Each structure stands twice: as C-alpha cells, then as structure tokens.
Amino acid sequence: MSKTGETPRFKRVVLKLSGEALAGSRGFGIDLEVVRLIAEEIRDIHGLGVETAVVVGGGNIWRGVHAQDAGMDRATADYMGMLATIINAMSLQDALEKLGVDTRVQTAIEMRQIAEPYIRRRAIRHLEKGRVVIFAGGTGNPYFSTDTAAALRAAEIEAEIILMAKRVDGVYDSDPVSNPSARRLTHLTYRDVINQGLGVMDSTAASLCMDNGIPIVVFNLTRKGNVRKAVLGEEIGTQVGGE
Predict the structure, then answer these.
(1) Residue 92 backbone phi and psi in degrees, to 5
(2) What is the average pLDDT value for the chain, to the nearest integer?
(3) What is the CATH code of the structural domain delimited by 12-240?
(4) CB–CB of 54/117 below 8 Å?
(5) pTM (2 decimals)?
(6) Model confidence over 134-149: pLDDT tens digits?
(7) Domain spans, the chain
C-alpha cells in the first residue's frame, strides 16, 4: 500500500508519451511548463509505490515520416527521430529530478556521456530500487515506431500494463474533432485495434501486446490526475485487451 493509503492495481507500468505531448499547445519543440506538469503526474504514481518506466516519442522535434515523404532515406530519417526522443527524455529527466524523483535514462543508441545504454536487467533493477526509468532511442532500429518500443520494453521488463497518454479521452469510432457525434469506445480487443486501424498504436505494437497479454489503457494526459486513476484501476479512457 502507498503512503496515501491508496492501493495501486498495477505494480509495474510503462507510460507511453508522444513527443507532441511535450510540445503542449505550440505543437512543436518542448514546452517546459507542460513537461513539469507531466513530471508531477509521474511523481504522483511514483509516490504510490508504482514501478514506472516511460517511453518517449520525438514527433515534437522531428517527424521521420514527413522527411521520407520529402525524399529522405527512411533509415536516416528514423535514426534522426530516435535522437529526438533522447532530447525529450533528458528534458523529462530534468523535470523529474527537480521534483525529487530519482531517474535513469536508458537509450537504445549508445550515448554514454548523457545516458545509460539499454540493459534489460539493469532497467529492472532501477525500477526495483524505486527509480523512474525513461527509455529513449526507440528500439534502436529504423522502421519501428516508439509505440513498438513501448510494447517491446513492456514485455521485456514484465510490465503489467501500458498507459497510452493522448490528448483525447480514449478511442473514438470517428474523429471527435470533426464529428461531434463520435462515440467513445470503452473496451476494445487487440484484434479490433489491428483490423480497424483505430489509431491506438501501430499493428506491430498491438501484435506484440496481444502475443504477450499486455493490456493497454488509452486516456487523456491533459486531465490532471488521470495517470493516477489509471494505475489505481479506475475506468477511464479506453481499455484494450483480449482477442
């Protein structure tokens, strides 16, 4: 049980943050106030005793898909995107440590001057010691998204759930921005995600979660306290699991 008396439903989680989440309303770059607010959400669940790993994207700095469309080599564009995730990881680490949360950044691309290389057993040990581990550099390979990195790391560290932080409060049957009548889907199977292309995560990531039985909850990160609600097992957003 946590110091607050609340008992989390999950002991070990992976929080997936898009790069865009760190940009706030600007849509690009890093909004340090937004990063601080996200760090506070992470600090709150850390305070509940939840072993927390974070996977960050890099779309606020570099979009490899757009570069590829403009003629850049796909592998080169993807590697540049991986470097962007490391910049984001460092900003989140700084915000967390200013709040008194011990952290480690591990990257799939070695940069020993600023972060540890990704080592599965070391990552697990950090979590067991109460450190927040931030995974950067994607999978370390081009052609794979940071969603796939989140699914892969979750399987490797035996996380109990992936918390997919979005700007909307779940998955809808159509775009809620353009369609006011769009209906939020409260429960989905992995195959729903894969077959219907619902935008939860890409098919490779969803298949990894399905094969390893890792549930996913898609929720609105911008609503204060939602990360805490997710780890306490409250019904928020869209729950993904089962075939």
Answers:
(1) -70, -40
(2) 93
(3) 3.40.1160.10
(4) no
(5) 0.93
(6) 999 999 999 999 999 9
(7) 12-240
